[in-house]
Amino acid sequence: MDVKDQASKQLLRSTVTIISPNFNKEDCIGEGIESVLKQTYQDWKLILVDDHSTDRSFEIASDIAKSDSRIHVFKNPKPGSGANGARNFGLEIANSDYVVFLDSDDFILPFCLARRVADMKSNPNLDFIAYYTKLFYNTPGDSDLLFNIKTNENELDRFLARDIAWQTAGPIWKREAVVSINGFDPALPSQQDVDLHIRALAKGMAYEFKDSEPDSLYRQNVESIPRRDSQTIAHFNARVEMIWRHHDAMKAGGSFNETRKKLLARYVLDIAQMMRWHQKDIGKEALAKALMMWKKASDRDLIGLSTYFWGVRYIRFKHNMLFNRVRPIQNRLQAFFESKLQGYIHFPSSTQFKLKYDEQKG
Q1: Is 28 exposed, middle or buried (0-12, 13-18, 19+ CB in 10 A)?
Q2: How far apart are CA 321 and CA 340, in angstroms?
Q3: Whole-model pTM above 0.90?
Q4: What is the C-alpha to C-alpha distance for residues 84 and 62, in angstroms, rounded to an integer?
């Protein structure tokens, strides 16, 4: 009997499963588990999958699990597969109608599962429902900011524009819905949750984004391997490959249009210009790789000839460190390229990490 079969036999059926990946979070893993134990809704199981931590977090979680049979702690059967592998293992062995993904250093509020399960049962046609998440830095309550808010824009467009509408713990899913898109992409070292949400939306899953009181808490200042390494060449390359997969997924799901074509191209252009950060590491190859990324966007018909032309010049400008050291020249050239590449140059979200719950209507 393999590890998955052995694990599955331990899990009695419940209505909802919380799946929590962990790596080296000994300072806060107990608090995350405690937030699940405080739920007013009782028919849950917690699957915590440790990716072979080198600190005491696995032992801490295992000790807590001895006090409540609903908590199940496992070692990731694929060491080094990261949060993706841990979440997918939890998804495979979960024995429930619904799942919630909760990173081991984050929290859910006591009413979270009760509200979410009731909403899903009242809306059996939905594949998932997403909710507001609140930020905190060191202790819950030290920030009033929301992760993001609901707007009038289409959520798939928002995710493609990197205006990430909800956080990993935001949705409750039908387990079968997540399984139908093969869970988290093991090839992605970062932006795994963004990718999952885009693939679900691109497929046309039925969902609702609730404009209501936040029921989960996201730790903003945590040091994690994906966050620390998110601007490396490997992460950039993986992100571009993700963009091509999203292109294919939207075409297959019938959700591709001119707006989304532009949003994909915008993301490629932004990664290409950010490749300049690696000139010290790989020299001129940084520009060559950037231009290859942009050329592939053209090959995939995401952009026309004029946009390709101006994009090449924009990438070359951003990689020319002389221009970027002389601020007046840089500003004039940036404005010039913004006029030539209207809508293709990325600007940060105006809502993510910026609004409080009582401000979000304004």
Answers
A1: middle
A2: 21
A3: yes
A4: 21
Q: Note the CATH architecture for domain 3-222.
A: Alpha-Beta Complex (3.90)
User: Could you tell me where in the chain the CATH 3.90.550.10 domains are found?
Assistant: 3-222
The residue with tokens 């105006």 is 350
pLDDT in tens, 226-276: 556 678 999 999 999 999 999 999 999 999 999 999 999 999 999 999 999
Could you say which DSSP state residue 145 is in? B
Task: Give ∠ CA 177-224-241 in degrees, rounded to 5.
Answer: 55
Torsion of Cα atoms, 350 then 131 then 157 then 97, to 10°: 160
**pLDDT tens sequence across 53-104:** 999 999 999 999 999 999 999 999 988 889 999 999 999 999 999 999 999 9
Question: Alpha helices, DSSP H only, in 38-170?
Answer: 57-65, 82-93, 112-122, 155-160
Q: Give the Cα separation of 261 and 263 in Å (integer).
A: 6
Paired tokens of 93: 């062995």
Q: Copy the structure tokens of residue 229.
A: 């390494």
Compute and round to an integer the Cα radius of gyration of the chain.
Answer: 22
Q: Using alpha carbons only, what angle is made at residue 194 by residues 204 and 136, rounded to the nearest 5 degrees?
A: 130
94 burial level (CB within 10 Å; 0-12, 13-18, 19+): buried
Residue 290: HSE in the Cβ half-sphere, 13 Å Cα cutoff: 27
